[in-house]
Amino acid sequence: MLLNIPYKIITFTCKPEDELYLPVFKGSTFRGVLGRALKQALCTLKTQKDCLSCPLLRTCYYAYIFETIPHRERPLPFGYNKIPAVPHPFVLEPPLEEKRHFTTEDTFSLNLILIGQAIQYEPLFLLALNLVASHGIGKGNKKFQILHTSTQTFQLEIHLNSLDTYEKEFSSPGDLTLKLKIITPLRLIFDGRLVRNLEFHHLIRALLRRVSLLYYFHCESSLPNVDAKRWLNLAENIEKIEDQTRWFDWERYSFRKERRMTLGGLVGEVSFKGKLSPFLSLLRAGEVLHCGKNTSFGLGQFKIVELSPLKRDYSPAKAL
User: Fold this and answer.
1) Between 139 and 190, whose confidence is greater?
2) What global pTM score does this model have?
3) 162-314 adopts what CATH topology?
């Protein structure tokens, strides 16, 4: 089985007009101001606080992008009724440097990854960031300039092989060793709790769910028929051989809930060993789409830093 998920990366290079102060983790700051700017620009019923009860919900671009509430004609598919929300059709990758003070001599970059149908809303994202730049961000609402914008469009090809292929892969000789670097806090839920001791099957559970829901709600109208139980049985056989992850807590202020929230997750490096070949396509997709909770803030970003021996190319992305 092959899932095709188109995506577009928009990279913004920016320069402060005045001294700019931002938090160590900048994702929630940019996500918050982008959402508020777009809502102010697009919301017709300004007095309507709850998007879910708004009569314009089905035709509202803001609700689709930033609230992502499923319509009645596209309900949650069977087996996914316990998920708290539909994944947003975009990922924000904020500036990763930990510095908080930016001068007029500095520049910073951020990426927006638009997924599936959200690609057609690129002009709205451009509008939102231009509004943010002119209104200001961070302490004191300092303005910045957008020096340069570049875009690239790709297509993820995610191979969810048949059971026969799985069995071939897992009966073949030789193991692979995989090292992942978790760049921004990874928040995974398993058995109702945040995962603090990461096992390989935790990651595969989250990626299978995320890829399936993104495909169903933002790409095609049908859900792929994936034997998740078989996938997870295979994933549970993968051995963790080194764990250098740590828990990282950070705070954000939620304007919607009107309170500060602590959001923690795992960062660092972790290594696994086993017959990993069938999972590589899914992991490569996760490098683009991120994984876990709060990906629209930039959380759950990881990359494969070591993979050996590598016998063939499993990269799913093709430029369009």
Assistant:
1) 190
2) 0.89
3) Alpha-Beta Plaits (3.30.70)
